[in-house]
Amino acid sequence: MSHSTTSRPQRLVLMNPGPVITDDRVRSALAGPDMCHREPEFSDLLTRVRHKTTLVAGGDERHSSVVLTGSGTSAVEAAVSSAVPAQGGLLVLDNGHYGERFHHIAAAHGIRSRRLDMGWATSLDLSAVEDALAADPALTHVGVVHHETSSGMLNDVAAVTRIAHEHGREVIVDAVSSIGAESVSLADDGIDWLAGSANKCLEGAPGLAFVCAARQAFEALADAPRRSYYLDLYRHYTAQAKAAAPAFTPGIPAFYAFETALDLVLAEGPRRRHARYEGLARQLRSGLEELGLDILLPPHQRAVGLTAVRIPEALDYTALHRGLRTEGFVIYSAQERLSRNFFRLSTMGCMTAADVDRFLVALARLLPGKN
To answer: CA 258, 235, 110: angle at the middle one, nearest 5?
Structure first.
């Protein structure tokens, strides 16, 4: 028995922070030809994707990239487990779920870490960062999240990097939810290790992640401890940079899609991509405030890709999610300590102003006293 689809919305708008709505050209690229990853065709594709990834990350001829088949977390874990030396340690700047994840990754690999718990949705205390580095010279690396998607907070990674370098330390930046939408640059910001994902603000398909760094930094990993087999960055760098081959079987369709997405972001340019996201976020936030809803962070702390909103009185998240899903919108719950009172709305991906307008109308219908 067939099911009628006449009442279903024609367009499902993903307002979760990845996977995102992708361009038709990205989706079409997933249907590229079957390919052996040990043939020259894939070597060429891998080399092109690595080069374009480095450019998007603000790198130049001094920098390189390693592309992994995995989620954004795989890139963060690869960077932490590979870059921190045997006798080193990690200073974790924690003001949300993903900052805390740095601490858990370090613990899983037996890496000593010190966690500066700033509190969720709280700006980083840069003086505390400086004091911690001055007090403990064995903390060789600092882990910081650029866009903390548990709250929508944008952290000042450039300032963290300046402080770390003044103390002779390296910085590992989780740029998974920021690269492509926010200003972040290996060369301009002096970031030592940048971890990212294909499927958020770069608008590729899920399945690929990457780590970008100076070529010299990758080469120096030859003497680093081998804490992981699959996530060993030196293993991947050696295979990809020197043999133009993957260390393991890659997700080839995702590479097709990622190259197309990278071409699109390079053509659009970082300023226009940021402005597009900023415009959608401003439109959404203005509409939310007109509906009387509270946004978690003050304007100067907000990333352009996500907005955390207080759940309206007389509604719970389950009812809100169900009602909006019926209208063609997928929203996202908040995490852990924010989950009781907040939900999250992403403006990542190929969302349009018409999508945002339609969402605000649908949301208004669900609010008590607004319909």
So the answer is: 105
pTM across the whole model: 0.95
Looking at residue 326, its amino acid is T
For residues 53 and 191, what is the distance between their CA atoms, to the nearest angstrom?
15
Cα–Cα distance between 205 and 201 in angstroms, integer? 11
DSSP, collapsed to helix, strand or coil, labels residue 346 as strand
CA distances from 323 to 13, 105, 309, 330, 359 (A): 14, 37, 16, 10, 11
Residue 281 tokens, joined: 């976020």
β-strand 332-333 against 342-346: which pairing, if any? antiparallel
Mean pLDDT, the chain, rounded, equals 96
Contact 144, 160 (CB under 8 A): yes
Domains of the chain, each with CATH number or no CATH: 13-17+269-366 (3.90.1150.10), 24-267 (3.40.640.10)
Per residue in 8-63, pLDDT tens? Answer: 557 899 999 999 999 999 999 999 999 999 999 999 999 999 999 999 999 999 99
Would you give the end-to-end CA distance of the chain in angstroms? 36
Hey, what are 110's tokens? Answer: 């037996």
Enter the DSSP assignment of 8.
S
CA–centroid distance for 291 within its chain: 29
